[in-house]
Records
---
Amino acid sequence: MAEKIKTLSLTPNFDKGSGLVPAVAQDAFTGEILMLAYMNKEAFQKTIETGQVHYYSRSRQELWHKGGGSGNVQIVKEIYLDCDWDAVLVKIEQVGAAACHTGRRSCFHFKRLKDGQYEVLEG
Amino acid sequence: MAEKIKTLSLTPNFDKGSGLVPAVAQDAFTGEILMLAYMNKEAFQKTIETGQVHYYSRSRQELWHKGGGSGNVQIVKEIYLDCDWDAVLVKIEQVGAAACHTGRRSCFHFKRLKDGQYEVLEG
């Protein structure tokens, strides 16, 4: 007998963040967190429609197809919302070597040391 | 010969988010993303000083010692900043069964299905 799956109709709550929700991109295969950026409603819809992650660039104030220029696109594997629907987790396949514009795999490459300095991680 | 580690003096950039930065809590052992919340300067300092994660509650507008009431505290293992220092990643040991106030392990328990509905993940 098939188990019944409990489902809900949900949409991200864009109101709390003035039209934006933070979106975490996690490597679907390694679990590594690659970056955190923001989505507006359009970016979230484009992400679903195209299967590639779109963000909203706060600095450029425009829709941002991640990797659209560099080719380092992020292919959507799974999408999750959190308990109050105001944060998004996208599990992705990162095309190309880097998620970060610095050429590093992950944007989270500054690791805090005990003395309060930050080690710059390469790779 | 010991390799030289490249280090920097950094502080999170709280200005871009009106005094707040998003902070992602990741299970240091499994890689699972447990929650996303926000830190102000005080919360970030308290996290470092105490070794337990502190956030800033946007709804209550006050410092929030995660698990201070329930006992489900988050013990800091590593802290990372991203490339422009406006997002924090904390790798943690989650004490107790749940990071989420709903009793679930992770706050990201709504998984999007192909039909646009969200499956409610238990556990």
---
Amino acid sequence: MPSGAPEREALREAGGGEGLYGLTTALLRAVGEALERGDEARLRELIAPLHAADLADLIERLRGDERHRLVAMAGAIVSGEVFAFIEDDVREAIIRQLDSRDVAAAISDLDTDDAVAVIEDLDPPQQREILDALPDRADRFGVAESLSYPENSAGRLMQREFISLPAFWTVGQTIDFMREAEDLPHDFYEIFVVNPRQEPIGTVPLNSLLRTRRPVRLRDIMGEELHVIAAETDQEEVGYLFDQYDLISAPVVGASGRLIGVITVDDVLDVAREEAEEDIFRLGGVPEADIYRAALQTAGGRFIWLLVNLATAILASFVIYQFEGTIDQMVALAVLMPIVASMGGNAGTQTLTVAVRAIATKDLTVGSIRRVLGKETIVGLLNGIVFAVLTGGVAAAWYGNPALGYVVGGAMIINMLVAGMFGLIIPVVLWRLRIDPATAAGVLLTTVTDVIGFLAFLGLAGMFLL
Amino acid sequence: MPSGAPEREALREAGGGEGLYGLTTALLRAVGEALERGDEARLRELIAPLHAADLADLIERLRGDERHRLVAMAGAIVSGEVFAFIEDDVREAIIRQLDSRDVAAAISDLDTDDAVAVIEDLDPPQQREILDALPDRADRFGVAESLSYPENSAGRLMQREFISLPAFWTVGQTIDFMREAEDLPHDFYEIFVVNPRQEPIGTVPLNSLLRTRRPVRLRDIMGEELHVIAAETDQEEVGYLFDQYDLISAPVVGASGRLIGVITVDDVLDVAREEAEEDIFRLGGVPEADIYRAALQTAGGRFIWLLVNLATAILASFVIYQFEGTIDQMVALAVLMPIVASMGGNAGTQTLTVAVRAIATKDLTVGSIRRVLGKETIVGLLNGIVFAVLTGGVAAAWYGNPALGYVVGGAMIINMLVAGMFGLIIPVVLWRLRIDPATAAGVLLTTVTDVIGFLAFLGLAGMFLL
């Protein structure tokens, strides 16, 4: 048992209420104190027993100056695996602090997919330096070739470490080969069967290999249902494929159809989380996870979205401006108009959320757009009528003016109908234009619902109330 | 090659532009026509070659009456695996149409986790009926016991089919055992090593079993780093554990510490998607994915959220109502007030989105709340100042009234500062109260930003402009 472990148990107990596994507030505090005192022995004692994923979390949670001190004091403990688990921004800061040779040494133990993930976001010169410092020539070539595929493609996600064998090999030969081979992947779950052109033709899960007698040929036990992925395929597509068919790993082929790598489900789990997170952030108008960023960068990152929003808010104000005369005659309109706009915005956001998600999961297809549009129009109309009655009733009672109630109700129906339609139309149009539907859809939608909401309400009021 | 396959290839080509794998618009249309004509042979020819996941998608995409006819014509083709892939609402409709014995026969081939997933949402009497009809007594017991664990717990996710062996067994014994055993799980990636009390003490990935010589004992090759999951653990926690440590499978233990099941990564991939989706839907104010629901149910499902929103919109209107006199004196206020409210809402939503996600990924912990609150306050203040200058400048120029610009700017700073703080405080308070932070946070937040936005703007205007 590594030294420090029992004490870590105690620390874990103390801070266990947070539901974190390897990491606790108490441990974080102890590490902070060791860093403060410059007590290297104590620091190593505390972090040595941590799982790479937990050490990565710990490093993420430190303040910038603490992190710098930790790397200076115990940089060698930051293994390739820790790098692979760490968040991009933080990783870059650490790599900048380390010697390229140390980074290269650390990542040379990783499978290609993880090595690529560690260095893909660095500046080209730094990337070059680390690549050149990789001790193994084959690694150098493999990582460089993976980097030649587009960002977020299968070529970046795949590892080049896999086992491919000809169909005529027997189970016995295969097992003997694996017992003797030196350079096997760290983890693998199936063996690929290839033809003489190195194209994948079948797959043998390890458990069927183990269950089968030695003289049987791979050809006779291999599964022929292959989900072959081209190296250029986008990772979102890869995630969909794994999710759809419950895959554990899948072969990746180059342009010639030759097997060049394998993607495993653990990478896809990360992708699934990232892609869903991306949708969440885009819908919320945040460029990315910025919880570990400093305040100034965070404010800067969020600025653009707010600026776009200011432009659309001013546009909506301009609509109101056209009706200043109307409002001047009946100030109740100013009181009630935000209700109509807000309900349209919310109803539209509901449709938008469902549509963005359905596009991502391929539940919304070109063939079903018309049907879904028809449905969303009806949904908008139904809820429009219900809320027209409710809001109109409230308004009429509030101001003792039935006509005002009718105008509120009429504007509500119009705006919720439009909201339902545009909640679908906007993301679909963005999607067909190959723009991510989550990015700009929200702001476009609220522009529509604000403008239509104010226009319908103040317009109807001008016509029927004054 | 199954009949119909080449034709399906052609169909796939025709509709392949949508990026769907097994399913195309052309195939959907052909199935629709076969259903229309009642051509059972053609129907079977079309759907027989489909992967279970694709057949599930096809069934989901049919209209209610078509679906009914398909099950009536070719119900036997709906295997247990298809049931496992199908979406809840649709599955229930189909099960209602089928005989309990047929459902039982279909799911008896599944691992317990999938069988549980198929029947867990049914009414208790129907569940009972299907359970009783399960041909295998052990299955019946296993599924019933899994159902005794809370919904969304590890006990529901786990499969009871796994291999556990004592540490003194050799690799050779293990391989021979697996070659002879009849009742092995469908897919598995590691073997669990247990002590005489059946508690898990180690794990042997299949690839190390294959790489090791026959006389070696499991004790000598097993990994001791176990991530043991209690059966009551919530699935969100399970997902976090798999994601954090890149697990491929993990042992589940009962209250006594005895190994009772195993959770595999494919189940967790589903959970990860579901949980992220849940956050997306809750943030968007939609109860759940309703793309396959009829319009009336969809409208009903979304009604409650809109009703809550109406209440808060009326509350905000009530604030404006208090300032009717002020607006009456200066109608420009009605034109500009939505800008202040809207910017606060958007800035707050940014913070809220990051906070909700950080709580889910455990990047926000009790220990870091104060630090993040400090940061969000600064971010709110920074962007508040920038947008105060921008919006104040626009307002002052628009109306040629510098004082109006100062009032807009002052209100903007106040509202964006409050928005940043409450964007964090609201989800954190909900989280500590054990309410899902994504659910109610959005509506609470916009209530705050609308009320504060109108109050600050109209209040300052009343004090300094009139």
---
Amino acid sequence: MFGFQYYTPTQVVFGKGTESKVAELIRTYGGTKVLIHYGGGSVVRSGLLKKVTDTLDAAGIAYVTLGGAVPNPRLGLVYQGIELCRKEGVDFLLAVGGGSAIDSAKAIGYGMANEGDVWDFYDYKRKATGCLPLGVILTIAATGSEMSDSSVITKEEGLVKRGYSSDYGRPKFAIMNPELTMTLPDYQTACGCTDILMHTLERYFTNGGNMEITDALAEGLLRTVMKNAEILARDPQNYDARAEVMWAGSLSHNGLTGCGNDGGDWMTHKLEHELGGLYDVAHGAGLAALWGSWARYVCGDCLPRFRQFAVNVMGIAPEGTDEEIALKGIEALEDFFRRIHMPTNLRELGVNATEEDLATMAHKCAVGVNGAKGSAKLLREEDMLAIFRASR
Amino acid sequence: MFGFQYYTPTQVVFGKGTESKVAELIRTYGGTKVLIHYGGGSVVRSGLLKKVTDTLDAAGIAYVTLGGAVPNPRLGLVYQGIELCRKEGVDFLLAVGGGSAIDSAKAIGYGMANEGDVWDFYDYKRKATGCLPLGVILTIAATGSEMSDSSVITKEEGLVKRGYSSDYGRPKFAIMNPELTMTLPDYQTACGCTDILMHTLERYFTNGGNMEITDALAEGLLRTVMKNAEILARDPQNYDARAEVMWAGSLSHNGLTGCGNDGGDWMTHKLEHELGGLYDVAHGAGLAALWGSWARYVCGDCLPRFRQFAVNVMGIAPEGTDEEIALKGIEALEDFFRRIHMPTNLRELGVNATEEDLATMAHKCAVGVNGAKGSAKLLREEDMLAIFRASR
């Protein structure tokens, strides 16, 4: 095992009606002029945005609003947000939505607290030295961005999707009311559950440093999310299942399920970033479409972990060779994806990629990771291409 | 399930040699004049204290020292610490040690940041509105105080042991090097493991609000701690086992294993507080000596949870009546306590309590909880006395 840092300062306020505490929380963290940042019209249609502005009005907290954060949130809107915040003297950001709104708000926060072009951080050129304080009202359980240090932004020019991680970007508070996720389309709910699973799986399949306590937490989280994702596929209005998935989403990406390891693998995410950049597919569905091909490609180089996963998480009987057990575990997770109507290849994802597209994505991915990345197996451009090909 | 708040702002720096980062961390959190607070001579003898003062000297950070925090830390030393801090203009507290030094430092911090008698907080009379910032170098894995909001202090007059919990008291950082716990006597190591288990068990045995994700994490933590406690009973120098237990100790009491429940039971702790106040026994050993008697007394009122514990944590086959399965789970945990040389009754603890002593403790305990407490079963003074009697 390795040494580690664990830092999750976000104050979580979880449960029914907790959005009513937003003004009190903004005040606690010193906000006097707020940018309310959100995505499409769903928070408008649901009345949540009005509820939030009413609460701030009643508390006498000034605000401006900026909607339009899309899945795979765009750099253009980030620049627009920074300009608006500067003009309006904003000192606190409130993201109302899912990962897109939160990640976009984090980028605006970096832009506000640092000189120069905010894209530099996402382009691995510089490190941020601060971030405007940020709070969240979460409406989608998926990215874990409400407690995590990471944000992912897509630059329109060349459709470059990049992530940046910094403790400065961790939200001050996260309001999580599972009821707010009930209006999500089933497909988005399943995408979210997949993303949550993947945040722990990326940390789980490594070739070094696993702690038993971390494994125990990770395996428990994975089993719980799978069970409740299936409940939600049948019964989307189930509050308890919504709550289980929502809290698991935060724990899956706040660092907890990776303590003591070598940092994790993360190649399924990196491959999906290229897919998301080029085809604008839903992130969770993209991950599901790629995972099986990645897993089969790397499994032989990380056999003890794939075996452990099969037995402890997927309930495979420990009979046969390690390879057989590992493969059954991979198949069982793919079966689960099918049961929640997630794709297990590019075709099912609706992506009809040419050989040239695959080569472009593999090349961009390899450049993005400076040549090679992966802990389960170190992948180079030719490996990435092979995985993309296998996923068609 | 219930709504909940989860707030663990403590920056954890975990691994070999991490104590070398103490000056850098104190500076990050604004400390310019430090009180180094510790317990007995072990941190002096081991050279850790000198290492810390050398590091602060090299960094040009001023400090004063105050040793003498004992197990069941005393109010008198807290007053002495507050006086010293005021005189010396201390603006940051560094606890070097285990729960006693940390809890004592928290109390000093409350005394510094609030007017009036600091005992008022422990005596349920007032709430603190702040705490001097506090960092920790942990040398004993047990109380979880390095990430928790709680501290327990004993008032010498009448030997009154009381706990106070406030988010203000959560440490800014916790340096955790598992190597620093290797010089602990085996008995203290086992006491620590017991305390860690109990922090999750107290949250686990409730009659309301359990979340599946919380249960999964709690059960994984309990199994991991038991396994590694047994390894340490045979091989105290095992770094990996030390690390597993140390990190589990923080996670067991930072709130994670209670999210969504009704606050937990906590009666074994409350009963042990009276035992610790009167006989000054090691906290973990006191908990082990009482737990079985508590469990048998309350089990019928919390049967589904005791059954789940037996099957999921203790590996009892789900055969027979719920009562039979539950009882086997209780017996299995007592067997575990014996294997790590912990007592399972007062006699084995070395306490020869008269009927009058038991009545005194039950009465003080009932007064301390305003008459009644407990979620597995609500206990009144007569129930407390019955449990003390059964534990002889």
---
Amino acid sequence: MDFRELVKVRRAVRNFEDRVVPMSLVKDIITDSCEAPSGSNRQPWSFIVITNKNVMKSISDESKKNILKEMEHNPSTSLSGYKAILKDPGFNVFYNAPCLVYIAGPKEVRSVAVDCALAASYFMLSAADRGLGTCWVDLGSAITDPALRTEIGLPEDHVIVGTIILGYPVEIPEKPPRNEPNILKIVP
Amino acid sequence: MDFRELVKVRRAVRNFEDRVVPMSLVKDIITDSCEAPSGSNRQPWSFIVITNKNVMKSISDESKKNILKEMEHNPSTSLSGYKAILKDPGFNVFYNAPCLVYIAGPKEVRSVAVDCALAASYFMLSAADRGLGTCWVDLGSAITDPALRTEIGLPEDHVIVGTIILGYPVEIPEKPPRNEPNILKIVP
């Protein structure tokens, strides 16, 4: 798909068809993600793929609990707008997605956040290019429980950067409004 | 350009033609960058465009000095491999690029690093789609001098995330090798 077209089609998708994403396709998208640039070509990204709905529900519950706990200590967090929905036991942060992919890397790599975000960007564009929908769900990244971290294969020294749900979209949502680009200064 | 083709063409470019990039084109690429997703659609990114070679040289000198100072305090930093080149007074971290673009955002936004990295990814892909070359030059982001920060219009509460040089490439470099994707676990 043409890049300009692709940018329009890549929208945050939160409603998915009840349809499995073939693992070979997930792997192809991950391979595309690894084409992203990274600091000193270090490629610090690793991936975890979860299609088990029970595990996704456990992660959703764990992450909601931890974010609510964080809010108690820091009521002014930018996540505070999500308080009501996080308290709803029926709310699954991953919606009805058939697949969840984590992009994580070693905490000690100074550029881990931007490197993994670049890979995540490629992931979302590659998925859109292949007719799939994604949404970065930061509400699903607060996993502290050691048993759950072990269950999903997340090493102790790794930090989750990207939390991306993946599936076949029921529809492509409208583009949320964008601000005019803010150019602080041009230095000629 | 087709996304799969575009991913191949987007390479780190460090050698540019002696040719000005029209400001309208820089602005178009910035507009494309703002199509990136961001946490809660907050779009915390701002841009600074520098085409003045003297200012770029001042920034290069300032940033080299600050990184070398950081190395004294932290000799094991991952940047230590750059020590010799940073000590070379003739080395300009921006090479011969005709244009430098900063992507920055407010420190207080918790997702500022990943949001601005997503915009940077769109920036680099959009530039490649338009026949331009880019390189993320993290060695040019260590600006602490208040006078220099004021000169380029960087607000005190902002952090530089992306430091990207832009121009017409002399050639598209070969792709540096990529590791096999590291899938830590599949949880079916």
